[in-house]
Design goal:
By secondary structure, the protein is an all-alpha fold. It is built from 4 helices and no strands.
Length: 121
Amino acid sequence: MSSGILGLVVFVAVSIADIVAYAAGRRLGGPRLSPLSPAKRWSGTLAGAAAGLGTPAVLSSLTWQTAVAVAVGGPLGDLLESMVKRGAGAKDAGRWLAGSGGLLDRIDSLLLALTVLLVLE
């Protein structure tokens, strides 16, 4: 599979994982994932990983590399961005996308997921 197509698959998978993680974490609650981001819950992380892994599986592009990138790289990217925001004392990383925490909140998971994928490929 070409790297462009694989990047698009990871983009879609991480986006779906992010949305499901948010919704499941809010709905199911449970233990906090990390003090770096107190609103994130284990329930959301696990539900998001499952949903995110379903995307490359349905598209016949699920490999161990894409699985690690989506299920591990995505959530770690989100936590890293939260850590940076907390360190800067900023709630939102920008106003370009109203209601979503800014542009960086939309791509934080993707940046680390793609990096993990590149390292593992």
